[in-house]
From TrEMBL:
SUPFAM superfamilies: P-loop containing nucleoside triphosphate hydrolases, Winged helix' DNA-binding domain. This is GTP-binding protein. It comes from Streptomyces lydicus. PANTHER family: ATPASE. Gene3D superfamilies: P-loop containing nucleotide triphosphate hydrolases (3.40.50.300), Winged helix-like DNA-binding domain superfamily/Winged helix DNA-binding domain (1.10.10.10).
């Protein structure tokens, strides 16, 4: 994009935090002057700001915006026609009886100029009208056959990427027509701290362990109530996520509403097991006393909905490990769910006092470990690991005979001199523990065990990640170049 092109495009409104890349993609798409109708697909989990972003794009480009709701087809067409009539300043709105008529009229807005036509919450419209994707596909086929000059810029938004793929699969796949597929994701942990106005890195980890990077959790669900400082965190938890009068208290369970009753019950149990430390299907099934086939099914459902991430073990690629993608779900199932009855009868402060240790061990510590993995691939400097990091995942190594398993919290692999998949680092994370030489010795044992099993560890550097800091002997080892040390300040501000 040339500087003149960038200057000609509408500026992002100040009320939208960050999202520069998403804004640039969207305004470039809707303002494309070239002939030919185009299609864009926008997806993402709930409450990531898709609607705010798309409303702003429509306003900045003088486009047409329609927010879909789950309703009977006739009602939706009537509401859409009224919105269309107001947009076109017609004397009276059209009377559409079929989606074919509505879609043709909407795309005709692009006959004279590049015209943004945005339909939000599109999956809600497909439920009552399952042929709607095929109707849109047919309309595009007719445009490309007879009105190649048309410059409609249709954007369909809503739902997770997997849901959008399912809606548009089949012989009339809209994915074949899409020239833009945009995923609106949560803010990364550094942006999330900036969004919440948090300067203390340790407090930022704690808040992220509750609400993650979902922007709506600050505005809509806690009414901009942010902790004033580290000393306010406990009180903030009690007055927000543990307060039934605040919407955030109810949010986690709505994320599972779409499952049928049996799946929903098993999903809760599986999430409780994962929050308690189970990461493999077998371990989860054993914890909840369910059949492995049933657990595998519900894990696949949760993964398809974007609520779980599945990753291969760092050293046993055939072993899949699961983690909860949405921090609020992890908080719910580790802290709130086991104390739900007590929260309805006791003061939140008393409940939180009993649950605080569980939060640190089962919520904050795993979240800190994940942020360390994210840092390794997204923020570490080019020379930090002596190569170009590509992945950072968990893993486990069999210790010497008679010794316990050796866990690795951050196994970094990447490219060294053109060679991909090189093991660059093995690391341990400790959220509430000052780390010192025993941790380095454990990492050395791990590297020795890996080497004995045939893994190339020649490029691997030990790394310690701590939420509280490091002892003097470990600092001395760092000075000698024997270990990498990453504290919360480096996590949020360093490379």
């Amino acid at each position: 994009m040339s500087p003149s092109d960038a200057a000609a495009r509408p500026a992002k409104p100040d009320r939208i935090f960050d999202r520069e890349a998403e804004w640039a993609d969207l305004v470039s798409f809707v303002g494309d002057p070239r002939p030919g109708a185009t299609l864009g697909l926008v997806s993402g989990q709930r409450r990531q700001g898709k609607t705010l972003l798309l409303e702003a794009v429509a306003g900045a480009s003088d486009g047409f915006y329609f927010d879909g709701h789950a309703a009977a087809e006739a009602e939706t067409l009537h509401r859409l026609a009224e919105r269309f009539g107001a947009y076109t300043r017609a004397a009276r709105p059209p009377r559409w009886q079929r989606w074919e008529d509505a879609v043709d009229a909407l795309l005709a807005l692009g006959d004279q100029r590049p015209a943004a036509v945005i339909i939000d919450n599109f999956p809600d419209l497909v439920g009552p009208s399952p042929t709607l994707p095929s109707v849109i596909h047919g309309a595009y086929r007719r445009l490309r056959q007879g009105r190649r000059h048309n410059r409609a810029r249709l954007i369909l938004s809503g739902g997770t990427p997997s849901l959008m793929r399912r809606l548009f699969s089949g012989p009339s796949s809209l994915h074949q027509l899409a020239s833009l597929e945009l995923l609106v994701q949560p803010f990364d942990f550094r942006k999330a701290a900036e969004f919440w106005g948090i300067r203390s890195p340790r407090l930022a980890v704690q808040v992220h362990a509750v609400v993650g990077g979902t922007p709506a959790y600050r505005g809509d669900l806690v009414c901009d109530d942010a902790p004033t400082g580290p000393q306010d965190f406990d009180a903030w938890v009690c007055r927000t996520v543990l307060n039934p009068r605040v919407p955030l208290y109810w949010e986690a369970r709505t994320l599972l509403e779409q499952e049928n009753h049996a799946d929903r019950a098993l999903a809760h149990s599986a999430l409780v097991a994962i929050a308690a430390g189970g990461s493999t299907p077998g371990a989860i099934a054993e914890r909840i006393g369910a059949q492995l086939t049933d657990v595998s099914h519900v894990l696949a459902v949760l993964r398809n909905r974007g609520l779980l991430h599945a990753e291969p073990d760092a050293f046993r690629p055939a072993l899949t490990r699961y983690r909860i993608a949405e921090p609020l779900l992890a908080f719910e199932h580790a802290v709130a769910w086991p104390h739900r009855a007590a929260m309805e009868q006791e003061d939140a402060t008393d409940v939180w006092r009993r649950a605080r240790a569980t939060f640190d061990s089962a919520v904050a510590a795993p979240r800190f470990a994940q942020l360390c993995r994210d840092w390794a691939t997204a923020h570490a400097g080019p020379d930090t690991f002596g190569g170009e990091p590509e992945t950072a995942v968990r893993g486990a190594v069999s210790g010497p005979t008679g010794h316990p398993r050796l866990d690795v919290d951050v196994a970094v692999r990447g490219i060294v001199e053109g060679r991909p998949g090189v093991l660059l680092s093995v690391g341990l994370t400790r959220w509430n523990e000052t780390m010192d030489t025993p941790h380095l010795e454990r990492l050395r044992q791990t590297l020795s065990a890996l080497g004995a099993s045939g893994v190339d560890v020649s490029e691997a550097v030990p790394a310690c990640y701590s939420g509280l800091g490091f002892g003097p002997e470990l600092r001395a080892a760092e000075a000698r170049g024997e270990v990498l040390l990453i504290d919360v300040d480096r996590l949020y501000h360093g490379e």
